[in-house]
Specification:
Distance between the termini: 52 Å
Number of helices: 23
Number of strands: 8
Shape: globular
Radius of gyration: 21 Å
CATH class of one domain: Alpha Beta
Largest sheet: 4 strands, parallel
CATH topology of one domain: Rossmann fold
Helix content: 40-55%
Length: 419
């Protein structure tokens, strides 16, 4: 695609990067077939090709409007278009650059600014989220349905192995995950223990929520803090950095791109990204430890967009579950986003709800008894409306100790409470 960037961005690091991405796009339109918002809304400007065109015009000097910002905001950055694109267009990176430029020229309403500030203030600080849940859960029957359904059911806190092992890995504790779904990292601890490996938590936010809600400077600050803490752990002898939330892992994998124009930090970001591991990478070589644990139980696996299109590990997780004895039911339109997309369910609730119901219909079509996933946001988003339990796939490797035997009844009780 021919481009003529405006003076304000021509020759800058971001401008050079954006121009290279724009020139790679041939406007073939293959991306529209896998874009969830285009499939839902049928508007060219709510698909990747249309959004690329909008960003191109802004970078060439056209003044953006609130409508421009709206079309860019409606994109959940699921990156399904990148998987589909035959030209290898790095759409997500272009969207980051374009959104930053538009945000400087199109002020948000006070209501939207407050919403995004509140998301960053609450969800990136575990103690604040823990306090909010403690205050609101007893009031659930009195709350509006749209608020009550967002309150996750309380998970049992399970003990973690006390054994120490010579092998150690770092594990991201997580913000929302550490409070709302603590069973995930507890399951990882048990899995690692069986592999003769210990774990040490790394506290701190990956920066994704700030980055994707328009506070890129705040996001970079959080990223730098996490990079420093991971570096300390690696220097102390940890062999890898394991992240159980695919959304956080995808963000960390992008650190080298985000810091590519900052010489002081780019090499450090590259070291952390090189140490990053999805749990499936540790488990796949030794999956025989869990042979038969699934006992033919029918499950539907929801592969989060970040696992599919950023980490490219969806097939690996499905293979582990199948070899563990689970029967994976077919999921139509498995490539489409569930509507969670980090903060997307809060900033675009209408589109998010439509995507969620479409995804649940696809997941339920094979008559599973449980839904598994790999990201805390997807887990909570789907569980709020699902009639079946929704769990992180790591919990399925030891279903008895993780309490999954009674999880169907728990799911029904939780839905009744929300009503």
């Amino acid at each position: 695609m021919e481009t003529h960037l405006a003076d304000f961005i021509r020759g800058t690091p971001e401008g050079n990067e954006a121009e290279a991405i724009l020139r790679a796009c041939v406007h073939c339109g293959f991306c529209t077939a896998t874009c969830p918002t285009y499939q839902l809304l049928g508007d060219e400007l709510d698909g990747p090709r249309g959004r690329i065109y909008l960003i191109k015009r802004v970078l060439e000097g056209e003044t953006p409007t609130a409508i421009t910002a709206q079309h860019l905001d409606r994109c959940p950055t699921c990156r399904a278009c990148e998987t589909t694109c035959p030209s290898g267009v790095r759409y997500a990176r272009l969207a980051d650059i374009g959104r930053a430029v538009v945000a400087r020229q199109v002020p948000r309403s006070w209501r939207e600014t407050l919403r995004r500030t509140g998301i960053r203030w609450l969800f990136t600080h575990p103690w604040r989220l823990r306090l909010m849940l403690a205050l609101l859960r007893p009031l659930r029957p009195l709350l509006p349905v749209r608020i009550a359904e967002k309150l996750p059911a309380r998970q049992r806190r399970l003990p973690q192995p006390a054994a120490r092992h010579p092998r150690q890995v770092l594990v991201l504790e997580g913000c929302v995950q550490s409070v709302a779904t603590p069973a995930t990292n507890a399951a990882l601890a048990r899995v690692l223990d069986r592999l003769g490996c210990g774990m040490e938590f790394v506290a701190g936010c990956c920066g994704a929520l700030a980055w994707h809600t328009g506070a890129q400077d705040q996001g970079r600050a959080r990223m730098r803090g996490l990079i420093a803490r991971v570096e300390d752990g690696l220097q102390a002898g940890a062999e890898a950095f394991v992240v159980t939330a695919s959304g956080c892992a995808a963000m960390i994998g992008e650190y080298p791109d985000i810091f590519r124009h900052q010489p002081t930090w780019v090499e450090r970001a590259q070291r952390v990204a090189a140490a990053l591991r999805d749990p499936s990478e540790l488990i796949a070589p030794t999956v025989e430890h869990w042979a038969g644990v699934g006992a033919g139980k029918r499950i539907a696996f929801h592969a989060p967009c970040t696992l599919q299109h950023a980490l490219h590990r969806a097939d690996a997780v499905e293979a582990i579950l199948a070899r563990a004895g689970y029967l994976l039911t077919p999921v139509p339109e498995a490539h489409l986003c569930c509507g969670s997309a980090g903060s997307y369910s809060l900033t675009q609730p209408g589109i998010s709800e439509a995507l969620r119901m479409r995804k649940l219909a696809a997941l339920m079509s094979g008559a599973p008894t449980l839904i598994a996933t790999a990201n805390v946001g997807c887990e909570l988003h789907l569980a709020a409306r699902a009639s079946l339990p929704v769990r992180h796939w790591l919990e399925l490797l030891e279903p008895t100790s993780s309490g999954l035997g009674s999880s169907i009844q728990d799911a029904k009780s939780s839905r009744n409470q929300r009503r």
